[in-house]
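Exam prep: given the inputs below (a chain plus protoporphyrin IX containing FE), describe the expected output before reading on.
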Amino acid sequence: MTRPNIKQHLAFGQGPHICIGAALARQQARVILERLLAPFDGFSIPPETDIRMTPSWVMNAVEELPVTFH
Ligand code: HEM
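Solution:
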């Protein structure tokens, strides 16, 4: 999240076939996150959390992510 090249990712592909719905997807995510987080001051991941990635050569995904809302 804090890396300097955070905008250089492949979530929406790249080049001539880059996702045509990226702007809509970003807007939807922004609305959902704003609504979801509005009642809270913030959230955190418990420090002892063992973040496991799903083993796959196709897609990186977190298996589960416990979140504490404050
Ligand atoms: C979080 C949501 C989304 C993600 C992660 C995502 C991801 C992607 C990726 C990675 C590609 C490139 C596939 C490739 O290189 O072959 C792609 C293409 C595409 N996406 Fe999305 N997408 C999302 C939402 C949407 C939405 C909301 C729409 C339409 C309303 C959409 C329509 C398309 C279309 C039509 C293409 C093909 C573009 C082309 O081949 O020129 N996507 N998407």
